[in-house]
Design brief:
Blueprint (H helix, E strand, L loop, with lengths): L17 H11 L4 H8 L3 H9 L7 H12 L6 H9 L21 E2 L5 E5 L1 H5 L6 H10 L2 E9 L21 E2 L4 E6 L7 E2 H10 L4 H11 L11 E7 L3
Antiparallel strand pairs: 1-2, 2-7, 3-5, 3-6, 3-7, 4-5
Length: 240
């Protein structure tokens, strides 16, 4: 991959901390800050703070191992790199030396294959990165998935309840006071979508779940190309 341009990197490399220097090398190798955030299982804003707020010390060991895997081992798959990083990520400690609590993951798949992940406007704008692990894990397990999107009423091509828009499933549409609508696509009754195929779509979109869902909705004639998704929910289950 060609090197990525970065506008927020200090002019002098000596100003960067070790986490930022490692992130720089990963970006030269073709990974975006969003990719790096996915690898270390954190929000992309934290990667930016490696540069602006001198953060990232807890991820140095993980980033070193990831960089070695990329440069020496030839590993490029994000889930593989994330698994490597997870084994070397240090947990924060409290002032007393105990392990600091962290927020739970936004997504979870139970042993039976049931899982749900939701994101709102802010996360959607950055590609719904928190949903990518859910989709990747669903693909690994061979699960099915469905999704619900919320857009402006005028963004949809077909009217509310249209059988063309959502054939074979319950067509009730949730209408909001702000002139938006939620519509669901796929269900356990109709079989839903193959998580493996959907994971491929996400990978083809550079890991951007929002873009992958938007592209599917446009390709299948359900929304207008200029439409903006403002809420997204992914659900998974094990096929019967």
């Amino acid at each position: 991959m060609p090197p990525r341009s970065r506008s927020d990197t200090p002019a002098e490399q000596g100003q960067l901390n070790e986490a930022a220097r490692l992130a720089d090398r990963l970006q030269v190798a073709g990974y975006t800050k969003r990719d790096i955030a996915h690898i270390i299982d954190r929000d992309p804003s934290l990667v930016s703070q490696f540069y602006t707020k001198n953060k990232g010390a807890a991820f140095v060991a993980a980033l070193q191992q990831v960089l070695a895997a990329v440069e020496t081992g030839g590993i490029t798959d994000l889930p593989e790199l994330a698994a490597i990083a997870a084994r070397h990520t240090q947990r924060r400690t409290t002032a007393s030396g105990g392990r600091a609590r962290v927020r739970g993951k936004a997504v979870l798949i139970t042993p039976t294959g049931s899982g749900t992940g939701r994101v709102g406007t802010q996360a959607i704008a950055s590609g719904s990165a928190r949903l990518r692990p859910l989709i990747a894990e669903a693909a690994r397990r061979g699960l099915r998935l469905a999704f619900t999107v919320r857009l402006a009423k005028t963004a949809y091509v077909h009217p509310s309840g249209s059988r063309t828009d959502s054939p074979g499933i319950r067509r009730d549409v949730i209408q909001r006071a702000d002139h938006t609508e939620e519509r669901s696509y796929g269900s356990s009754q109709t079989g839903g979508f193959d998580a493996v195929d959907f994971a491929r779509r996400v990978n083809a979109a550079g890991g951007d779940v929002t873009a992958a869902v938007h592209q599917w909705l446009v390709e299948t004639g359900r929304i207008h190309p200029e439409a903006h998704i403002i809420h997204l929910e992914i659900r998974t289950w094990r096929p019967r």
